[in-house]
Structure formats: C-alpha cells, structure tokens
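Shall we go through a protein fold together, starting from nothing but its sequence? Label the sequence line and the structure token line clearly, so we can match residues to local backbone shapes. Would you write everything just below, so we can both look at the same thing?
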Amino acid sequence: MKKYALKTLALCLAATALTACGQEQASETKTEPSVASTSIRPEHMAPYQSRPITDDVMYFVMPDRFNNGDASNDRGGIEGGVNDHGFDPTHKGMFHGGDLKGLTAKLDYLADMGISAVWLTPIFKNKPTQGNTVNVTAGYHGYWVTDFTQIDPHIGTNDDLKNLVKEAHKRNMKVIFDIITNHTADVIKYEECYPSGQNSLNVPLCDYRSKADYPYRTVGKADGTVINEGFLGDDVEHQTAENFAKLTNNNFAYTPYVPETEKNVKVPAWLNNIKYYHNRGDSEWKGESSLYGDFAGLDDVFTEHPDVKKGFIDIYKFWVEEFKIDGFRIDTVKHVNDSFWQEFAPAIKKAADGVGVPEFYMFGEVYEFNPEKLSHYTTVSGLPAVLDFGFQGTANAVISESQPTARLADFYAQDRFYKTEKYDASILPTFLGNHDMGRIGRFIMEKNEGISDEEALKRSKLAHALMFFTRGVPVVYYGDEQGFTGDGHDQDAREDMFESQVASYNDNRNIGSDVSPEVDNFNQDHPLYKTIQELAALKRAHVALRSGAQTVLKTEDQAGVFAFSREDQTSGEKLIVVLNTAEERRTFEASAGTMCFISGSKPVSKGGVLEVAPLSWAVFDAKNCK
C-alpha cells in the first residue's frame, strides 16, 4: 500500500521500549506535508463512476457566494429594481453574483485541497424574491424553486452545468445536487388569509388546519357540506390513482388560489395545479403539520398523491440521465411521507445504474440530533444515508464546549441503529456546521469567550481531524478552510468567498488569518486550507481511515483523550488515532505491540505512556511500523 509521504521521523514506538524511543523528545514536533498538492488531487483516486463514497471528501458550496465568473447574469436577465431581480451584493439576503462559471473556474482550488466531491445548494430556477414590504429577500440559496427543469439564470444555464460536470469529471471529482420535493416557491394563496385582489405584500401566516378539524370530506365550514365523496384519505393503503381521482375539491381546509400573474409560473406544468398541494396553512413544526403544513409559507406539495410521486421521479431522473451527476442531497426529508421515499429512492438508483453511475449517492437532510430518530429515514424511509446531525452536535459539544470525550463513545455506540441490509453508519456525511445552523468557527468563538487566535485555530484543526479520521464521509463547508466564522446562522453564515460588500461580513474575526471576507479568500497557504489538505492526504493514503471498522479505545469523563482504532479487514491495516480536547497534556497508554507515529503532533513518551499535547491529534500505524 502506498505510504503517506510526510516529512516525519516515522518514529517507531514499541510498547516495551516507548521510553527509549521517546525520552529524548522534549516537545512535540508538528509534521508538515512534503508532497506537492497534485499528489492528493482526485485524479489519483479510483474513477469517480465506481468509487465508493467512503473514499471521498465533500465540499458543500453555495454557488451565489463562491465565485462570480460571469457578471452579465448577476440580475438573472430580469428588468426592474432590486425587489424584482434580487441582486444586491451589499445585502446579506440578496443575490451576490456567484455562479456556475465561477465555481468551474475554482475546481483546481478544490482539487488541490483534496476535495473529490462538490455538493451544491439547489441551483434550479427560483422565484427571484419573496417577502413583504418590511423584508424582501432573494432566492440566492435555491430553496424557492419555480422551474425544476432549468438552472436559475442568476446562477447560469443548463449548458454551464454540463460544462461544470464535464470539468469536474475530467478531474475525477463528483458533482452532487441539492434537491427539493417537499415544497415549491410561495405562489398559492388562501382567500381566508390573503383575499384575491389584495395587492399588499404583507401576507400573514395562515394557521395550520388539521385533518381532524378540517377533513377532506367536508368544507370545514358551519354548513358541513359534504365534498370529495368516496375519497378514503391519504394513508399508505389508499395512495392509488383510483382513490385520488375522487379528491376533486381543494377547499377542505382553506380556499386556495393562484394570483393571475403567477398562474403558469411553475415547470413542469403539473405543478401549477392546486390539487397537488396540501393547502392546510403554515406548519407548526410538530405533529401532523410537520408533514402537511407550508414550510414558512412555501407551497407544501401533496407527496402522498401518486401523480406527485411519479412527477418528481421523472424530474430528477432527467437530471441524472441528462447530466450524469453523481448524487443527491435531499432537502427537508422529514417533512415528506415515508411512502414517497420508498418509491423515489429505488427509482432514482435504477436510473443512475442505467446511465453508468453505479455509486450514485443519496443522503437526506433531517434536522435531528438523536441517532435512533435520525435512522428512521434510512431503515424505514429507505434512503441510503442521512446527514449526520448527531455527529455535528456531539463534535461541537466536545471540541467547542470542552464537554467530556465520553460523549463521543456514547454517540458511536448508537451506530447500530443505521444498519440495514445494504448500508450502515460508515456512509453518513459528517459535518461541523452548515448554511442553516452556522459555522464551527462561530461555535468555537461563542463557547470560549476571549479565546486567543492560537487556541481558536487549534480547536478548528482538531474538529476537522475528528471529522476526517472517524467513520463517515467528511463534508467541508465552504469558507471554513479560510477560517470564516460568521455572525450566527442562516444569512449570517453565508459569506462571500470573492470580494464581499456586506458590512456585517466584512467586520468578522476569521480564524488563522487577519484577512476578512472583504477581499478575495482563495488563499491556498491559509493554515486551515493546509490542514484540510493534510487530512485529506492522510485519509487518501490509508484505507483504514476510509472504510476501516472503528473501535473506541479510551475516553474521559471530562475534556481530554479520545482514542480509537480504524482497522480494515481486507488489507489488515490498522491505525490508532489519539486526540486531546483538553487545554493541558493528557496521557494515553500504548497497547502491546508496535505503534509507528505517522502524523499530527508527536506525543512525548515516558515508560510506555504517551503524553499528548493540549488540543492536538496524533495518528499511529499499529501494524506496519518500519
């Protein structure tokens, strides 16, 4: 197996002679990559079509905030003012100009860092702006789709996407789409909340109306008029074309309508039909409303309807078959019924197999931190994987908040919940922060008041090491490699990588750099970029770090050591990783046999016991010491 080419003494630590091997080391020595960045580029990996996702390092990027490659599309070809086209690079809630051409131009920046899969926020055509007279924002994030068949003109064209996929594949990189089936843009209105003919943008939220209080068979008004006679409801056993043909009246909860100016705005055309939406008012984020309610006013699609299931399968088969993309991240999974996913996932997998993408990767977004609840969407709904919010919550607690490392052992003990006939926890995407909750840099800053630049950098590096070395598929959130911190969640965690004009972004304190988002932030010498490059190289060089079984060796009931092994049964390779989350030295007793130091901060050895430096990590080869 190819050895990891690092500038290292490759110190062999025999458990019986650790003192002799390590006594003369009075302090830790930090290894630095000696190989050129080209050696960790994805060109040196197995082909993207057949490469298992566990071999990949993903990069999650918001194209509008990454790089502006074509200023001519900044307004999406839309006339009028900012409330029409949505472009205002000084406003954190508007389009800033990043696009697919800009992302394509920076693929080498990503490849040099060791990124092998690029995951984009949704790029389908959106309603340019939504909101009210007090707060209008733009669909720069991609979650207000009107046309599922074309790229948003602010972001580029379908041909630009083809070129991005071609250039990524040329570099042996995968392209993963962020897709939505739960909702569309806010187009449908309710007479009871927003009478037709009213021009004001001040749209009130409409209270959720339940199936119990407003059943499909009655209008829900005082006269109790019977409608939809013979309709048996939308439970799984009744999700047939014959039954839904009897659901002819949509006024069971509210009286929905579409304003004249938006009658045919959605594509494909079937999405313009009100009968394909739940129309029950706004979600309360709990109970039945979580499945049937409008997501902050967005039109909630009737995913129980067989026409809708077929319609969305056809939509996303098109993108797989036409563009040969490599995977889907699926938005708002828990707000869609299980039976939808049980049909959708195998249909998309079959389509991908048919066009030569056998390792097509699907993972759902379920904002849930409890593994037992989170795993429902793999073991019952039938998706291969879900974003590992459980890892994010635990890693953040241990690294940012210095909580006991025993929490990690408790967390990984729950991996059993994800086991199915085909998949397990090893394919879950792991992450430290994202565009909704905020960045790991912000969590570190918030939980450690007055933290020094040096400590903030150490904690961020340690968090990334934990993510790269433990089971799962690591996901780097764009900008984290440049030390971005943000001011919070949502819009406050979506800074520009190119020159920012947003005042609240430009005054941020970044980690590992004095540079702010006010200038171009594609610095390949940034210490966090270099760290991710190093971690990716180590992961790429050792199959045990990609697919090896993970066994916890030591934790503490306080901040301190988290040690574990990764062992690949096929090759026999076994690595031991030791992390110290404490601000002082901690010890780890080396096991019998040979341990060869590979990377990280080399611990001091005293009589068979390793003294691990504060806020550091070290990796050892436990079988092939030379």
User: Anything to note?
Assistant: Residues 306-323 form the longest helix (18 residues). Confidence is low (pLDDT under 50) at residues 1-36. The CA atoms of residues 270 and 311 lie 8 Å apart.
